[in-house]
Specification:
The structure holds two protein chains of two kinds. By secondary structure, chain A is mainly alpha-helical. Chain A has three helices and no strands. In chain A, helix 1 packs antiparallel against helix 2 and helix 2 runs antiparallel to helix 3. Chain B has a domain of about 180 residues. Classes of the chains: A mainly alpha, B mainly alpha.
Chain lengths: ~100, ~290
């Protein structure tokens, strides 16, 4: 039972990672690509690690996995935020992605 | 925003991008082109000399690369086959290190034992290379407060060299408040536990400098300079090299006594960590700002 649940979680994680890989190659603009890769950073890694935690059970290494997951969830969204922010700040045409102010 | 408009809520303003006035200021600054510093030559003759030097330079570098390529390929041809039992790497020396290494050096980690005792001279050379690299970058890029330039030139230089972000990012600041202590603690753990577990001076120095760089990026130059000023920086990296050289010289003078070997790993480990940390942080700082 434990194995089946763990495998389901890992399979879902792999599915999310696959969608993000397809998104990375299918999307045209960098912000859309950032959206796709950010999903892999958070949801994909989270599902994958959850599956690994379920598969290993209660052992000292489980705590390390949880710490790793916390670290990744703290840092990865911020790094993708910074990259997309830098993309917006260095655009040739600034109004490309957001609506201009209504006058 | 026009005057006659109804006042919208803060959230709607935020969604419409009207609240982020600092972002717009940054946008303006980001679109200003960076100035380039032109190399000024004294006269034409010097310029011609430089040009002819570069012509010969390209020719000589190509020649040198070709010679090295031929030598390396020749060496590769004379290497023994992979997994050959008669190859010179498969002799009794590695077995000797693995069997008697722990007994002789007192370190459970065979890699650390190799790097810091048997191959200590090599690591000393590596530390010297790191030290010299940091010194060379300092010679090229060091501009302490841009002394001896006028105010206008200082402004231009600041525009050219100062690659640090103009405003602190809130998310990065909050995140590094949580993460930097843990990163530094983990670096210290790797540094001190390097004797008996995977780790050691080089990796620990990289982790420590990563924490320092994150702190610097989040809180700015002034915050880092409070505890890591230029004097402290120079002191730490010189002290690291001196500790290493002193300990290793003592070890050699006492003829590699087995009593001493179990004690020299720890100080050498810490010394290498200090040198590596200062080198990496110094690179970042000098390339970003031109001073420590």
């Amino acid at each position: 039972m434990k194995t089946i649940i763990g495998c389901i979680f890992i399979g879902a994680g792999i599915l999310v990672l696959l969608t993000s890989v397809f998104g990375m190659f299918r999307f045209k603009y960098s912000l859309n690509r950032m959206h796709a890769s950010a999903i892999a950073d958070t949801l994909g890694v989270g599902l994958f690690m959850a599956g690994c935690i379920i598969l290993t059970g209660l052992r000292p290494i489980t705590g390390k996995m949880i710490l790793l997951l916390i670290f990744l969830w703290l840092t990865a969204p911020i790094s993708s935020h910074l990259v997309s922010r830098m993309d917006i700040l260095t655009q040739q045409k600034p109004g490309k992605y957001w609506k201009e102010e209504k006058r | 925003m026009t005057k006659g408009k109804k006042k919208t809520s803060a959230f709607v303003e935020w969604v419409n991008g009207e609240r982020n006035s600092h972002l717009k200021a940054e946008l303006h600054e980001a679109h200003e082109p960076r100035r380039r510093i032109e190399i000024k030559l004294d006269d034409e003759k010097q310029g011609n000399q430089l040009l002819s030097f570069f012509k010969g330079y390209h020719f000589l570098t190509t020649l040198l690369c070709l010679i090295l390529l031929v030598i390396f390929l020749w060496v590769v041809l004379s290497l023994p086959n992979f997994g050959d039992p008669a190859a010179p790497t498969n002799n009794e020396v590695s077995r000797e290190y693995l069997v008697y290494g722990m007994e002789k050096t007192g370190s459970e980690n065979a890699v650390t034992a190799m790097i810091f005792t048997y191959r200590g001279f090599d690591t000393l050379g590596e530390s010297c290379v790191l030290f010299l690299a940091a010194s060379a970058v300092m010679m090229l890029l060091y501009q302490p407060g841009n002394r001896g330039v006028t105010a206008k030139e200082r402004l231009e230089l600041k525009k050219f060299y100062d690659l640090e972000p103009r405003s602190r990012n809130y998310l990065v600041t909050q995140m590094s408040k949580v993460l930097v202590p843990f990163i530094m603690l983990y670096g210290l753990y790797v540094l001190i536990g390097g004797e008996n577990s995977p780790g050691g001076g080089f990796s620990a120095g990289a982790i420590l400098s990563g924490g320092l760089i994150l702190y610097r990026h989040a809180f700015g130059h002034d915050a880092t300079r409070r505890f890591l000023s230029e004097r402290v920086f120079t002191f730490i990296r010189t002290l690291g090299l001196c500790i290493y050289a002193g300990v290793f010289a003592m070890y050699i003078v006492l003829q590699g006594g087995d009593a001493l070997t179990s004690h020299i790993i720890m100080p050498i480990d810490v010394a290498v960590g200090m040198v590596v940390m200062c080198t990496m942080y110094g690179f970042y700082s000098l390339f970003m700002k031109g001073e420590i």
